[in-house]
C-alpha cells in the first residue's frame, strides 16, 4: 500500500521498456520516410479492463470507466489508444532514444476531436509527435510523425464487409463518373480507396467531415500507384483559403482484406 | 402515399438491425439508441445508411449536410432524431432535435 491507500505493485515486464502490444505496419508509412511510422493491432491482446489498466494514463482510465458506448465502440477506442501509444513510443525511442511506458503517452482529443499525444515527455524532450488513428472491423491502426509541423491522417476500411452502395452521398457526379468507368470487379475497392483518401485528408486537416464530405474532391486518382490528388471545395476553402487550387496528395493501397489511405501535410501551408 | 412516422421508425430499426447483424458486439437497437456511440456506426456506415434510406423512399435528402452538422457540433444522433430528419424531408413537421455529445 502507498501513502494514499492504493495498492502498488510492479507492472508486468511487458509494460516497461520498449515492449509493444501492437505491430509495426510498414505499408501506410512507406511513402514518408524515417520520421513516420504506423502501428497496427488486429485484436484486443488482453481482456479489455486488464489492457486498460496496463496502458492508460489516469485521465484516460477515467474516460474508459465512464464511457457510455456500445462494447464494439469501447473496444475500438481501446485498440486505437493502444496502437497510437505504441506508435508514439516507438517513434520517440527511435528519434530521441528515450523509452516511454504506455501510460506516459496520453492520447487526448483536441476541441475538434483530432487526437494529440501529450504527457510530460513532450516538454521534457521538446517534441510533439503528430498522430492519427483509424479502426475498422476489429483492427486499429495509428500513424505517427515525429515532425510536429506535419498534419497526419490515416483511414482504414474493411473489404470483408459487404458494402452496400454509398456513392450517391459520398461522391459528387464527377467522382461517380470516375468510378463508373472502372471494371465492375474493382469498383468497390476503388470506391473505398477514394472514401479513405477523403477521410484521411479530412482527419489531417483536423475538422473531419464537419465541412461536408464533398468538400474533399478527388481530382486525380492514379490507378497504377494508388496516389490520389484531392482538392478542397466549398466550406473547406472557407476554413483553409490558402489551399485553394493546391492539391493534397493521399496514398491509398490494398492489403488483403483492408484498404487504407494516408496523407501527411505541412502545417504551415494551411494556417 | 407518405409513410407515417411509426412506419419510418420501423423501417429504420429494421435497416439498422440488418446493417449491424454481422457485428460481433451488436446490441439491441431501439428508437433512443445513439447511432455512433451505442449502435457503433462509423462514418462510412452512416453514409451507407443514408444512401439506403434515400433509395428506399426514392427521395434525395441532405444526409451529407446532416453528417457535417453533427460533425461540426461533435454530437451523436438518436434513431428518433434520424426518423425526424427523414420525416421532415418527406414533408412532415417535427420538433427540434436534441443534441447529445459523442465521446472522443
Structure description:
The complex is a heterodimer of chains A (271) and B (104). Chain A is α+β, with helices and mostly antiparallel strands. Chain A is built from nine helices and eleven strands. In chain A, helix 2 (48-55) packs parallel to helix 4. Chain B is mostly helical and 104 residues long. Chain B is built from four helices and two strands; from the N terminus they run αααβαβ. Chain B has helices spanning 5-20, 43-57, 63-72, 79-89, and strands at 75-76, 100-101. In chain B, helix 1 crosses helix 2. At the A-B interface, helix 4 and helix 6 of A face helix 2 and helix 3 of B.
What's this entry about, in short?
Chain A contains 9 helices and 11 strands. Chain A is an alpha+beta fold.
How much helix is in the residues of chain A?
Answer: 25-40%
Coarse morphology of chain A = globular
Strand content of chain A: 25-35%
The number of distinct structural domains of chain A comes to: 2
Q: Write the CATH fold name of the largest domain in chain A.
A: Ribosomal Protein L22, Chain A
Q: What would you call the structural class of chain A?
A: alpha+beta
Quaternary form: heterodimer
Q: Helical content of chain B, roughly?
A: 40-55%
CATH class group of the largest domain in chain A: Alpha Beta
Question: How many helices of chain A?
Answer: 9
Largest sheet of chain A: 5 strands, antiparallel
Q: Name the overall outline of chain B.
A: globular
Distance between the ends of chain A: 50 Å
Strand order of the largest sheet of chain B: 1-2
Amino acid at each position: 500500500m502507498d501513502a494514499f491507500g492504493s495498492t502498488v505493485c510492479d507492472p508486468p515486464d511487458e509494460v516497461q521498456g520498449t515492449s509493444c502490444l501492437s505491430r509495426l505496419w510498414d505499408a501506410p508509412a512507406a511513402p514518408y520516410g524515417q520520421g513516420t511510422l504506423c502501428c497496427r493491432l488486429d485484436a484486443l491482446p488482453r481482456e479489455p479492463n486488464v489492457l486498460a489498466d496496463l496502458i492508460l494514463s489516469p485521465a484516460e482510465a477515467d474516460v474508459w470507466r465512464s464511457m457510455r458506448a456500445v462494447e464494439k465502440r469501447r473496444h475500438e477506442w481501446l485498440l486505437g489508444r493502444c496502437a497510437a501509444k505504441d506508435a508514439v513510443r516507438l517513434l520517440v525511442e527511435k528519434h530521441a532514444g528515450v523509452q516511454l511506458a504506455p501510460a506516459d503517452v496520453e492520447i487526448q482529443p483536441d476541441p475538434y476531436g483530432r487526437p494529440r499525444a501529450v504527457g510530460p515527455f513532450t516538454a521534457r524532450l521538446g517534441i510533439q509527435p503528430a498522430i492519427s488513428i483509424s479502426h475498422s472491423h476489429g483492427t486499429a491502426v495509428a500513424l505517427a510523425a515525429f515532425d510536429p509541423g506535419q498534419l497526419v491522417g490515416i483511414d482504414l476500411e474493411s473489404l470483408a464487409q459487404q458494402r452496400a452502395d454509398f456513392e450517391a452521398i459520398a461522391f459528387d457526379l464527377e467522382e461517380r463518373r470516375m468510378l463508373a468507368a472502372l471494371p465492375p470487379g474493382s469498383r468497390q475497392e476503388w470506391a473505398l480507396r477514394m472514401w479513405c483518401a477523403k477521410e484521411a485528408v479530412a482527419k489531417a486537416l483536423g475538422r473531419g467531415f464537419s465541412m461536408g464530405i464533398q468538400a474533399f474532391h478527388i481530382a486525380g486518382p492514379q490507378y497504377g500507384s494508388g496516389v490520389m490528388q484531392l482538392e478542397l471545395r466549398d466550406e473547406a476553402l472557407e476554413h483553409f483559403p490558402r489551399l485553394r487550387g493546391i492539391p493534397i496528395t493521399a496514398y491509398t493501397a490494398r492489403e488483403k482484406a483492408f484498404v487504407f489511405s494516408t496523407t501527411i501535410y505541412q502545417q504551415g501551408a494551411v494556417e | 402515399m407518405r409513410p407515417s412516422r411509426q412506419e419510418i421508425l420501423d423501417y429504420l430499426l429494421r435497416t439498422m438491425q440488418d446493417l449491424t447483424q454481422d457485428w460481433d458486439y451488436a446490441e439491441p437497437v431501439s428508437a433512443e439508441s445513439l447511432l455512433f456511440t451505442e449502435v457503433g456506426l462509423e462514418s462510412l456506415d452512416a453514409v451507407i445508411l443514408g444512401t439506403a434510406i434515400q433509395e428506399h423512399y426514392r427521395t434525395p435528402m441532405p444526409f451529407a449536410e446532416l453528417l457535417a452538422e453533427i460533425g461540426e457540433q461533435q454530437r451523436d444522433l438518436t434513431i428518433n432524431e434520424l426518423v425526424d430528419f427523414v420525416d421532415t424531408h418527406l414533408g412532415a413537421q417535427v420538433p427540434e432535435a436534441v443534441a447529445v455529445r459523442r465521446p472522443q
